[in-house]
Amino acid sequence: MRVQFVLQEIWIGLRRNLTMSISLVITVAIAMALFGTGLLINKQVSNSTNYWYDKIEVSIFMCTKTSSNTSCNKADATQEQKNTIKSDLEKLPQVSAVEYESKDAAFARFKDQFSSTPGMVQSTKAGDIPDSFRVRLKNPEEYKSVSSAMLGRPGVDQVVNEQEILKKFFRILNGLQWAALLIAGIQVIAAVLIVGNTIRLSAFNRRRETGIMRLVGSSNMYIQLPFILEGAIAGLVGGILAAFLLVLSKIFLIDRLQGSLQFASQLSWSSVVGIIIFSVCVGVLLCALASFLTLRRYLKI
């Protein structure tokens, strides 16, 4: 097989259909970038879920004079009530560890977590956050039994399960992921259609050459290969552009998401590189396969 001839045919095809080739590259780049962004968000959700699953706690907030719970009677929980609550929590079989957090400690942790939003810190003063018991569970799914055992107890204002908060957060991320993948799917369909039209136009422009090649006994694969490689090269260039866009997504979307939302774990660059390689391979294979199917369907070589 003459490599020089194949390369020459590829160059001719890309040059003759330059506008459509550029459109194809841009469409593939956008499609693979959106596809890769969906995978990045999915990886972020998965990492965050695995990271926080065994760290989920149930917070039992004690009564204060400003509590809206009528059972608190506008009074702070007594030390006796706190000791009773702690003793009963440690006896529960679902509980792994119990840690008491005073008002001052809670306020210090609040200032540390929200140091990036000074307005929120300035509007909150010491004593606004009640003291609480932070309960680590052996199985986070068993929080209901602990909650039901503590609710309504003397001195208890409210019971907050962090799992419910995290579920809402992950639901938002999953919505972003599926939105990105849906748009990527639409772009992939558009890319396939553009690939088909580009290859058909290229084959039509070179119908005389391909006819002569058939007459001299060239194999179907030898005739089809330049067209398939045209699509693959366009997919490769689009995938490389998509890789650049994915790096920007990591810096300006994923990292900012991790920085602004305190419970998102860091997404490593090794994961990003793996997703980039996968997205580029998908783009190349998609364009090559679309070219191959277009030739078989329309050219009847």
Structural summary, described in words:
With 301 residues, the protein is an alpha+beta fold. The protein is 70% helix and 8% strand. It is built from 10 helices and 4 strands, in the order H-H-E-H-E-H-H-E-H-E-H-H-H-H. A 4-stranded antiparallel beta sheet has the order 2-3-1-4. Keywords: Cell cycle, Cell division, Cell membrane, Membrane, Transmembrane, Transmembrane helix.
List descriptors.
transmembrane; rod-shaped; 70% helix; 2 domains; Alpha-Beta Plaits; cell cycle; single chain; cell membrane; membrane; four-stranded antiparallel sheet; alpha+beta; cell division; 301 residues; 4 strands
Count of beta strands: 4
Q: What is the residue-averaged pLDDT? A: 78
Order of helices and strands: HHEHEHHEHEHHHH
Widest beta sheet: strand line-up: 2-3-1-4
Low-pLDDT segments: none
Q: From the alpha carbons, calculate the radius of gyration and give it in angstroms.
A: 30 Å
Total count of domains: 2
Portion in helices: over 70%
Oligomeric composition of the shown chains: single chain
The SS-based structural class is: alpha+beta
What is the number of helical segments per DSSP (H or I, 4+ residues)?
A: 10
What fraction of the residues are assigned to beta strands by DSSP?
A: 5-15%
Shape, per Cα inertia axes:
rod-shaped
Main sheet characteristics: 4 strands, antiparallel
Domain ABC3 transporter permease C-terminal: 182-296
Subcellular location: Cell membrane
Keywords: Cell cycle, Cell division, Cell membrane, Membrane, Transmembrane, Transmembrane helix
Transmembrane segments: 21-41, 178-201, 222-248, 268-295
